[in-house]
Specification:
seven-stranded mixed β-sheet
């Protein structure tokens, strides 16, 4: 029987050990074997640090984003191969779409966010410049730079493709190489994924490695620059978190663990309302998608006491229509669990849960299946329970399969208390159209949850659902859920960067960050900065223009032309009574328009468009007779990798004849790369 391969230290490795057999979840047939025997884990980590790290750090955030987007497109072309393997894990086509297409979607999502929100540079500038001295010659700036280690990513069996990719994407954007360690049960899918990633020839050598099989002494070789991202049980997370090397080197450790997620039905959502139907539909979906093998599935359904029987009956009717069996059969809507061992684990958990409740639907021991053998395949009926909410088991025992428990509650405070008894969850949901009820519940349970979905008739058509983590939002939760955060947009990238406070002069900080800092040198020349292409323009290139006198006639004309006749501009008596002005003043947008008229170079040239202003603040009123002068300075230059132009952020400082700043803001332009 073939052995799964690992990819370490720049080559494929096949263990010569006997290995552990992996079976088809539907038929019970042996697919392959798995073993990591013979891998030098220290050498693999060293390879990532020496080869992968420098190659990635040599690219800008935007260049890495372009590679990630291309990789996503490449994987999308091979989805059918991945679907076929996914079916062997018991996944239906819908399940496979969540895992395969969802994982690819994370790559696209991170590529897009990195291009929009990160600089085309190798350093991340975190926050504003901090003034540290009265004269402005000593300032501070936080920056983020990639850690010089490897992101060790230990994944769970239930999402063999989405799991690795949602960890890989932010690490790659950050410039940190990944070593992927999948759970053994479904590692054959992850092996194919990594094979396709490498075959794309898009990734620098060392950017990704794969360990199929046990982790051996992998963690023994961790350094302070490495990271560990773990998805799995809370007990395993605790063991890894307290590993001597992790503790000794203060290794960044992010865990996403067990989660007794809840969904709360509002008292307003009685039978016949859209919210009632949405709650029942979502509950059944979360029980049956991926056969309930999702860390985000609903384990506790909190229902107002008077609605408990109606919800139970409606859920029974829906569950009775779910066809279970071979995912290849067109009628099947729920496949098998990942393996026979997993089925037995769920049955053990069900036994504990039944001590506190009773079965509303299904059986732990019997299930009817289509086009399959119910015993050879890892099939299990969906099981819906009803339990006493004050018993401990529903809040402590997770049956990681198609299992959920109905729990009655009495009032908002009781619902919040029951939700909190899960001791920390990845996600919760509130299904109600009563905004006051929703607010009270959300604010009450938020400290115990990483994500909260509010589902009602208004958002149902576009909602991605209770169980769907998204690249832009954090995935993780406090307490039992692991205490970590994954994804969350750029937050996931920052986890792989070291934040450092740099103190120095404006000139030095400009050199370090690649952004002009107030107080740093400016360069003025006979050639207007707007006449320079992106290739010619430099940080600090500047133009000073003015003065221009603001007249009362200007103010009145602007008011008449725009319709902005606010009293501070047009009523002398009322304006004089205003404690901020003491007389008529110019419109803020008038003085900004005058500034543009002063600094613009009107002839056709490299500047293609002005696409916005950022951080505009009016600091001093402008009165009739004031003289305005503007200084415009190139602050940040961002070439676009896939276009013949880039973005330039300009610092604009508009002052009056006394040298007082009237307005400060950033001007955003698109500039051609060449003239």
């Amino acid at each position: 029987m073939a052995m799964l391969r690992s990819y370490v230290s720049g080559r494929w490795h096949t263990s010569s050990a006997e290995g552990v057999p992996l079976h088809d979840a539907v038929t019970g047939e042996e697919i392959t074997r798995i073993s990591s025997a013979g891998i030098d884990f220290g050498a693999a980590l060293d390879h990532g640090r020496r080869v992968g790290g420098p190659a990635l750090r040599g690219l800008t955030f935007h260049q890495r984003a372009a590679l990630l987007k291309a990789l996503a497109s490449h994987l999308r072309e091979h989805r059918e191969e991945l679907y076929a393997l996914s079916a062997r894990s018991g996944a239906t086509k819908t399940d496979s779409l969540i895992d395969v297409d969802g994982g690819i979607g994370v790559l696209f999502g991170y590529a897009s966010k990195a291009k929009r929100e990160l600089p085309n540079d190798t350093v991340y500038v975190d926050g504003a410049v901090e003034p540290l001295s009265r004269g402005g010659t000593f300032v501070g700036q936080h920056i983020g730079t990639p850690l010089r280690g490897v992101a060790v990513q230990i994944n769970a069996f239930n999402f063999p493709m989405w799991g690795p990719l949602e960890k890989f994407a932010p690490a790659f954007i950050a410039g940190v190489p990944s070593l992927i360690k999948p759970a053994s049960q479904t590692a054959y899918i992850t092996e194919k994924l990594v094979e396709l990633m490498l075959a794309s020839e898009l990734l620098p050598e060392g950017a990704v490695q794969l360990v199929s099989g046990g982790a051996g002494d992998l963690l023994d070789h961790l350094t302070p620059q490495d990271l560990v991202g773990f998805t799995g049980s809370a007990s395993t997370a605790q063991l890894l978190r307290t590993h001597p090397a992790v503790v000794r080197s203060s290794v960044r450790f992010n865990a996403e663990a067990d989660s007794l997620n809840c969904s709360i039905l509002g008292p307003d959502a009685v039978a016949g309302t859209p919210e009632f139907d949405l709650f029942v539909k979502q509950l059944v979906s979360e029980m049956t998608v991926k056969a309930g093998q999702k860390c985000t599935a609903i384990r506790r359904a909190l229902v107002p006491g008077p609605l408990l029987d109606a919800v139970a009956e409606a859920a029974r009717e829906r569950l009775a229509k779910v066809v279970i069996g071979n995912p290849a059969h067109e009628s099947v809507r729920m496949g098998a669990l990942a393996g026979l061992e997993q089925r037995e684990e769920v049955r053990r958990s069900l036994k504990a849960l039944l001590e506190a409740g009773e079965v509303v639907y299904g059986s732990p021991d019997r299930v009817e299946v289509v086009d399959a053998d119910a015993e050879r395949g890892a099939f299990l009926s969906p099981v819906l329970l009803k339990a006493d909410p004050d018993r401990a088991q529903p809040h402590e025992v997770e049956a990681f399969g198609p299992v959920s428990t109905l729990l009655p509650y009495d009032g908002v405070a009781h619902a919040v208390e029951l939700a909190a008894r899960g001791a920390g969850s990845l996600v919760g949901s509130v299904v109600s159209h009563d905004a006051d009820f929703v607010r009270e519940v959300v604010l009450g349970v938020a400290p115990w949850h990483g994500r909260l979905l509010v589902l009602d008739r208004d958002d149902a058509k576009e909602s991605t659902g209770h169980g769907s983590p998204l690249p832009a939002l954090v995935h993780g939760g406090p307490g039992r859920a692991g205490g970590g955060e994954e994804m969350g947009g750029i937050r996931g990238v920052l986890h792989h960067l070291q934040r450092t406070a740099v103190q120095g002069s404006p000139r030095v900080l400009s050199a370090v960050t690649g952004r002009w800092v107030t107080g740093a040198d400016r360069q003025e020349s006979d050639l207007h900065p707007f006449r320079k292409s992106l290739a010619e323009l430099r940080i600090g290139d500047s133009v000073v223009a003015g003065p221009r006198v603001v007249t009362l006639e200007d103010i009145e004309h602007f008011a008449s032309f725009t319709g902005d006749t606010f009293y501070a501009h047009m009523d002398e008596e009322a304006a004089a009574a205003n404690p901020f002005f003491g007389g008529r003043v110019a419109h803020g947008y008038l003085v900004v328009s005058f500034a543009a008229g002063l600094f613009v170079s009107p002839e056709p040239g490299p500047v293609l468009a002005n696409y916005g202003l950022d951080n505009l603040r009016f600091l001093t009123p402008t009165f009739p007779g004031d003289e305005l002068t503007v200084t415009l300075t190139a602050k940040q230059i961002t070439p676009r990798e896939d276009q013949d132009y880039g973005e330039v952020r300009w610092d604009a400082d508009l002052v009056n004849q006394k040298g007082e700043s009237v307005a400060k803001y950033d001007v955003l332009t698109l500039v051609a790369k060449t003239r």
